[in-house]
Amino acid sequence: MESLLAHHDKNQPPYHDRPTEVLLGIYVTSFFSISEQTMDYSLSMYFRQAWRDPRMSFRFVRDHKIRLMDESWKKFWVPDTYFRNEKSASFHKITVNNRILTVNATGHLWYVARITTTLSCPMRLEKFPFDAQRCPMQFESFGFTMDTVYFGWIQNAVDHPADLKLPQFQLIASKTRDCSANYTTGAYPCSEINFILQRDIGYFVIQVFVPSFLTVILSWVSFWINIDGVPARCTLGLVTVLTIATQSSSVNATLPRVSYIKAIDVWLIVCLLFVFCALLEYAFVNVAARNGVRLRTPIVREASLEKPQSPPDSVSPKRRHSRRHHRHFHDCKHSYKEVCGTESDDGFERDFHLNDQNIVRKCWQRLKSRLPFSSSADTNFKVTVDVEASKLKARRIDKVARKSFPLAFLIFNVIYWISASIPAANHPLDEE
């Protein structure tokens, strides 16, 4: 070794008349972090370099390969390769320095080092979580230009175990390309490995899509709750809205603040829109149901002015009103089947609630001409017609919502999942 280094200048490259070829390669042992928020990934690997230095050739040793000690590396020329997109990196030193340099009789040197590094990975998240990412690893010479050094690839340049597992991703391909760049000080050699990573959506199906899907369905339960159940329907609507809003916040907390909309944003926004519309639907139902109640006050006041004063009775006014209203309602039941054509004694009550508001009013006009109603009874029945007809309209809104909301959500799901299955126009596999 001393004789080899006697006339060796470590500051001079192996060749003066042509650039030195440095072959690169890696063996990936593990991916252990891929972050969308910081847009980087971390991995452990064996970094390999091979080149020939004719000054290191020899013929006086039977064993044609010599392993060089760490301290001797400082005495001869080695490439100054570094990771251009590196954020942090470290050599492994447990239990000894995990690197080796060997030289054979022809002057070919083989350098291997075990490294853990974190590299930047610009990500496109428009289709998140149905996206595929292209994460680069760039090798560049720090001080030697392309007149001195150029890069190539060893055979099987990108290797890894067959059972390599990644968190939330699948490694579907790896591509190599040249990334040489011109700087003010010259053109420097650069080679790049691109890892094509396809995201696994299983986590998001379990944690995001299924819970939000069930929350939307839960919001439809309010359509079957009685229109008078204000606390139940309002509570259910508010809980579902807050659930989707909280879920959206938790998902976006782990993602960078990008200026474009993501596929998962579309899903959560539409789910929020559905549960909000379900809550808004009850507002319309409540207003429709109370229209008849709003009309009652002026009608009753007008009737009370026309009503003659009656002598006091031992029976309370509320009980007299109840008996009188029951008698008029009973008379109306019997007259209804003659006027409106029903054969059932219960037809009045059933048809009164089920028929169209206009039919009820027309039937009432015919009933009025046959029954000897007082002004008060007339008023009471008008109020009943208005209130029940308004409730009928409110129930109709609920019935329409029971069908329209699930149908609209089904159509959205079909469109959404078909769109999600279509690869993006800028898919990493299509890029050179």
Low-confidence stretches: 295-315, 317-322, 328-356, 373-381
Highest-level CATH class of the largest domain: Mainly Beta
**CATH domain topology of the largest domain:** Acetylcholine Binding Protein, Chain: A
- Helix percentage: 40-55%
Please tell me how large the radius of gyration is.
41 Å
What's the CATH architecture name of the largest domain? Distorted Sandwich
Overall, the morphology is: rod-shaped
- Count the DSSP helices: 8
Q: How many domains make up the 3D coordinates?
A: 2
Task: Kindly report how far apart the N and C termini lie.
Answer: 45 Å
Could you report the average pLDDT, rounded to the nearest whole number? 81
CATH superfamily of the largest domain: Neurotransmitter-gated ion-channel ligand-binding domain
Query: What share of the residues does DSSP label as strand, in percent?
Result: 25-35%
Class from helix and strand fractions? alpha+beta
Query: Biggest β-sheet: count, sense, barrel?
Result: 7 strands, mixed
Query: What order do the helices and strands follow?
Result: HEEEEEEEEEEEEEHHHHHHH
The total strand number stands at: 13
